[in-house]
Description:
Blueprint: H1 2-19, E1 25-30, E2 37-46, E3 49-57, E4 83-91, E5 94-102, E6 107-117, E7 120-126, E8 133-140
Protein name: DUF2147 domain-containing protein
Keywords: Signal
Amino acid sequence: MKKYLLTAIAIVSVMVSASAQDVFGKWKTIDDNTGKAKSIVEIYESNGKVYGKVVEILNPDRQHATCTECEGKDKNAPIKGLVIIRGLEKDGSEYNDGQILDPENGKFYKCYIELENPNKLKVRGYIGFSLLGRTQYWVRVTE
């Protein structure tokens, strides 16, 4: 009986660990220059692809900021609510083949994301190939 109980506990903890090891959920973005938290981005799946939307802006002075440098339908759109990660597809341990929007300059970059650990997400935006780009690390929001 004790053996079965230990096995059941092990299975449940593996399942809980596996579910915590995905990229979906809310992530706190960190400013490259200041090291301060900027926003909360929610990463979700839609039609088999992965997207990320700004759901909260943490700087009170930027609550009503808009994407003045963006083009098309995103031009002058509020940054809060803006989908900044678009169309990523799962490829092994990472998600790639999509784009990320930098609301500061309105430009799209190729993008990939992958978990460094259950609470740290590596987000890489780049031009051409992944060596020419910038990496940020986002922190999982635990509620």
